[in-house]
Amino acid sequence: MIKPPRLNRGGTIGIVNPSYWLKEEFLEKTVKIMEARGYRVVLGKSPYLKDNLYAGAPAERAADIMDMFTNPEIDAIVCARGGYGANRVEPLLNYDIIQANPKIFMGYSDITTYTMSITQKTGLVTFHGPMLVTHKEEELEYNFINFEMGVVNGKPYTITPPDDFPVRVLKPGVANGPLLGGNISLLVNRLATEGQLETDGAILFLEDISEYLYSFDRTLYHLRRTGMFDNITGLIIGEMCDMSDTEIPFGKTVDEIVMDVVGDLNIPIVSNFACGHGRYQATMPISIPAHLETVGDSAILKILEAPVK
Question: Quick check: pTM over 0.85?
């Protein structure tokens, strides 16, 4: 395991946009919010590029990521947004160079492709957490507190749910193991490839957005049949945003689908955790040992080691 150097308050955050294109006016607004917190922000080339839906061609986006890793002035790399397109960029990254230049790398959604690939191929701890689009003024405090707990403070920390966004305990219990996971669709896309996620002994977290309930059921059941859940120690379902039903109702909620597919496992299972596409974003360090514990009708996630050095 390689822990990246911590981000000092007032340090320099490099912004890349390695998937979908993002409007420049939105960049300007969110950059100002980050700068108001005392950080220096440096935008890479990809936030200004546009190739149809994408923030530049795959080679351009890959080069921007690599430039941030090799630039000695950049202390942390935060993605501007997700979307789609990481699958074409990820094979173009130079993992030897990334391993030789360890830095904080953070994002979620489509960025799951990068976080999991970097961690699996280099041993570098990456972060499923707030992106530039997450730092909106009205929801900044919880996200920014968790951001700084993860990459600035340099010590173990505990993730607790926001007061107005309670975790739902589907199955009580206690779990220990390295924290792994991300967007469900991206993890499914890695099956039967060299990037397939090895989950034995892990606390696994999953999240997604804009799926039909029947599709979520199909995906979760497919993952069950691949053996992905066989040896995990705990399961965290993040906020499943904008889930849809069909004209003929599927007949089960997200929680009911989860329990129908994996409820027989002898592990704690929680849902509605603040690690999805919604308003709140906890910072989840990939591969760091963690402790999941249900407490009555809530749950806490303890990050047992500092994920940065």
Answer: yes
